[in-house]
């Protein structure tokens, strides 16, 4: 895998689907739910949810993508011709042999993400799911700074504040509340509830992760410290 290869991580709903990928070398994605630019994926990696028991919330295997075609579900699974979605179109990704990772990539808090786009470089170096995310060099630099300071955070996540939902770049759960961080000048709404603090860093500020961390540390202290600690 090259550093700039495009890697798609896909949630595998059931063990049977992973067995098909392993034995028959294909994987299906409903056309109506397929991510944009699906054809750009050079590799497909498999994110395992709760149905996989002790292996849940991990990525353990991946495979090269050899090709793709659009087919009906009934043609992929002829023994399920009466399935409610039998006549719906699916992308069939043709795969090479599955490759086992030297160590699993884990989600520390069991996030249910359907698709993640990442690069070969990030995938090869990732220890946890958040290492795969990010939308630029500044974003990645701040993530590295958080890890270096032992602060447990989640990236690119939707959080709740009462009935409202907010998409934030970093969420840091703390002892007495939560800290949300948004990057850039796009007018994202920020959580404003009594249990929330929020910071916004523009493109210039995020180029100086040390200065950002000074502000983050102040907010975390006022919220009674980060709830989760991590190691690099």
Provide a descriptive summary of the structure in words.
- The protein is of the alpha+beta class and 232 residues long.
- The chain has two domains: 6-132, Archaeosine Trna-guanine Transglycosylase, Chain: A, domain 4 (Roll); 137-222, Endonuclease, Chain A (3-Layer(aba) Sandwich).
- 20% of the residues lie in helices and 36% in strands.
- It contains five helices and eleven strands, in the order E-H-E-E-E-H-E-E-E-H-H-E-E-E-E-H.
- The chain has helices at 15-24, 73-76, 120-125, 137-148, 209-222; strands at residues 6-11, 26-30, 43-48, 58-72, 89-95, 99-106, 115-119, 154-161, 164-174, 177-183, 196-201.
- The strands form two sheets. Strands 1, 2, 3, 4, 5, 6 and 7 form a seven-stranded mixed β-sheet that branches. The chain has a four-stranded mixed β-sheet with strand order 8-9-10-11, with helices on one face.
- The longest helix is centred in the C-terminal third of the chain and has 14 residues, at 209-222.
- It is elongated, with a radius of gyration of 20 Å.
Which secondary structure elements does this structure contain, and how are they paired or packed?
Blueprint (H helix, E strand, L loop, with lengths): L5 E6 L3 H10 L1 E5 L12 E6 L9 E15 H4 L12 E7 L3 E8 L8 E5 H6 L11 H12 L5 E8 L2 E11 L2 E7 L12 E6 L7 H14 L10
Parallel strand pairs: 1-3, 10-11
Antiparallel strand pairs: 1-7, 2-5, 3-4, 4-5, 4-6, 8-9, 9-10
Helix pairs in contact: 4-5
